[in-house]
Write a structure and sequence with these properties.
By secondary structure, the protein is α/β, with parallel strands linked by helices. The strands form 3 sheets. A 9-stranded mixed sheet has the order 3-4-5-2-1-6-7-11-12, with helices on both faces. A 6-stranded parallel sheet has the order 15-14-13-16-17-18, with helices on both faces. The protein has a 3-stranded antiparallel sheet with strand order 8-10-9. It starts with a helix and ends with a helix. It folds into 2 domains: 36-280 and 497-506, Glycogen Phosphorylase B (Rossmann fold, 3-Layer(aba) Sandwich); 303-490, 3-Layer(aba) Sandwich (Rossmann fold), CATH 3.40.50.2000. A hairpin with a 2-residue loop joins β9 (225-226) and β10. Bound molecules: alpha-D-glucopyranose (GLC). Alpha-D-glucopyranose binds at residues 51-53, 56, 197-198, 246, 279, 410-414, 433.
């Protein structure tokens, strides 16, 4: 009896504990204040985009805010932002921005899009032009923008805990903060992160820009001086608490002269603050089961429907309708970075294979010209569409069987991730983010989600394409496995955002 009683007491105790634990689990009334992050970027979707930076600037804030942060985005109010967006912006006020001997007007606008607060900084002299970059005074335009980011806080009232700047256009933000703004109480303790998406563009100018345009006093000029020039990105590497780039492999590669574009020396000196975090993609927008741009939606369970997209794309582009031709897709900027020299060098060999090649992009004249001309010689096998269309890009991801990305360097790359999600098997060079996200298929273990090659050599790339075409012929065996491995991978921002959060919390 006594034993039974004891037992009952013992049984009750855990219940009581569970109750207590439940009470403890409930969110405390005084929640920890959300960390405030200001993401500074020169482009962000859906407003303007020239490259992957715009995708990151849209997706990272969303993922951070889902985790309880208050991340907002600030960017220039470009002429190229569609009117629909401009008409719905709200003006918060204006401020004057001192830039050496200048004093420039800056209007501050805001808009909320998909739950994210965006700030737009307006100055028509600098930003009422077609095209985001490539103007004679880009150095002055982005120096203005970077300083205006700090000045505009008095209008927005948003004083962040962390400023996260991206690429050379915003590299002067941490520099200006250190040189001019640390005396402001709200900015005294702000930490700074700088992310390198592309090291090829650094914001390099003659050193006279430092006093005449940037307005940085002589005794602080060394912050932005590098190898005899003014260099915006070097300033950010000096002044930021943490420097990140968009994949672990690329973070290692840029310490090497082949990839470092002369930045390797300063990066080696500051390597203690360098980290690599691989990007994610927006898995809601990039979903073959829901993407409205596709002719037919599909997922892994209905993979058989994908071929309908290939046939419809062939019809649309005037290519012979042939479900057995392996369709190779390429989507992206037609620049040296993307390894187009390799494709051009062995294009005739590729055209001998049972394939169709569809290229969408724009960029350097020499590549546009090469592929346009080659299209005339291979009307039944090659299509090159110059320009950019998100709709056609989706149709290519959906219609192609494989996706070629032989980049010379690739900080992260987003296209290979989208391709995998759409069941288009990536063929990539083992560099940067491509190496971190695409793993060569292994026939023995059935593991791997793509095909890879190592050297920047056209025949090595051709070999990888040939291997892909060989695998494709075994449609139900190896091919089905490599496709499934790619389609079932997790490329979402959730995991990636956690890594940034770790930095925000510990910086
Ligand atoms: C740049 C890089 C690309 C990266 C993107 C976003 O466009 O070239 O590799 O994915 O930035 O970080």
């Amino acid at each position: 009896m006594a034993q039974a009683k004891k037992k009952t007491a013992a049984q009750e105790k855990p219940k009581a504990q569970a109750k207590e634990a439940k009470v403890k689990e409930a969110p405390p009334k005084e929640e920890k204040p959300k960390k405030k992050i200001l993401l500074v970027a020169s482009e962000a979707l859906p407003f303007v985009k020239t490259g992957g930076l715009a995708d990151v600037a849209a997706a990272l804030p969303k993922a951070l805010n889902a985790d309880g942060y208050d991340c907002r985005v600030v960017m220039p109010l470009y002429y190229d932002i569609p009117d629909d967006f401009k008409h719905t912006m709200r003006c918060l006020g204006n401020v004057y921005v001192p830039l050496a001997w200048r004093n420039q007007y800056c209007g501050v606008f805001t808009q909320t899009y998909e739950g994210i607060t965006y700030y737009f900084l307006d100055n028509e002299y600098y930003f009422k032009r077609r095209g985001l970059y490539g103007h004679y005074d880009d150095g002055e335009r982005f120096a203005f923008f970077s300083k205006a980011v700090l000045e505009s806080m008095s209008v927005t009232g948003f004083y962040p805990d962390i400023i996260h700047a991206n690429d050379w256009h915003t590299a002067l933000v941490p520099v200006y903060l250190d040189v001019f703004y640390r005396g402001i109480p709200q900015l005294n303790g702000v930490k700074t992160i700088f992310t390198i998406h592309n090291i090829q563009f650094q914001g390099q100018y003659g050193d006279s820009i430092i006093s005449d345009v940037l307005g940085i006093p002589a005794d602080r000029a060394s912050l932005v001086m590098y190898k005899g020039c003014a260099n915006f990105m070097k300033g950010a590497i000096e002044c930021s608490n943490i420097v990140t780039t968009v994949s672990p492999t690329y973070a290692g590669e840029i310490l090497d002269p082949y990839y470092g574009y002369e930045m390797e020396d300063i990066l080696r000196q500051r390597s203690y603050k360098l980290r690599g975090i691989v990007n994610g993609i927006d898995t809601v927008k990039n979903d073959p089961a829901a993407d409205k741009a596709l002719f037919v939606n599909y997922d892994l369970a209905n993979f058989g429907k994908k071929v309908e997209n290939k046939l419809a794309l062939q019809r649309m582009l005037g290519l012979p309708e042939n479900k057995d031709a392996a369709m190779i897709g390429m989507v992206g900027r037609l620049t040296e970075q993307k390894g187009l020299d390799l494709v051009a060098a062995v294009l005739e060999n590729i055209m001998q294979l049972p394939v169709q090649l569809v290229i969408l992009g724009q960029g350097d004249w020499r590549y546009e010209e090469t592929f346009k001309r080659a299209q005339n010689d291979h009307t039944a096998k090659l299509r090159c569409v110059l320009g950019f269309s998100a709709d056609l890009a989706s149709k290519i991801y959906g219609g192609s069987d494989m996706f070629l990305m032989p980049s010379k360097f690739e900080p992260c790359g987003l296209s290979q991730l989208i391709a995998m999600r759409y069941g288009s098997v990536p063929i990539v060079r083992e560099t940067g983010g491509l190496k971190d996200t695409v793993h060569p298929y292994n026939h023995d273990t059935g593991e791997g989600n793509g095909l890879t090659f190592y050297s920047y050599n056209a025949y090595d790339m051709l070999d990888a394409v040939q291997r892909a075409v060989g695998l494709y012929r075994d449609f139900k065996g190896d091919w089905a496995k490599v496709v499934a491995n790619g389609m079932s991978g997790d490329y979402s921002w959730a995991a990636t955002a956690k890594k940034y959060e770790e930095i925000y919390e510990t910086v």
